[in-house]
Amino acid sequence: MELNCFKCSELLVVIEPISRKEECPKCMSDVRCCRNCIFYDAKVYNECREPQAERILEKERSNLCDFFKPGRKSALVQEDKEKQKAAAEALFKSFKKS
Length: 98
Fold this sequence. Notes:
alpha+beta; two-stranded antiparallel sheet; 6% strand
């Protein structure tokens, strides 16, 4: 399976089940963590769309969540949102100056 590291966007090829000790070879961040899961969503309660999952405070650290499923685009989606937000802010600033 392929997924992107949430921290550096490095393309990782992993074999499921992903070990808690698995790390990104580029930035050394944990691979089996909330930020790399398909259920991670910063906009929902506990930042998780899986309603039965236990609360995990450290979203970027390895954990034992039974509902973990690797998400292919976790880092890329976040990066894209940040780019869109910056573009929108720049647009509004140009309107304010006019």
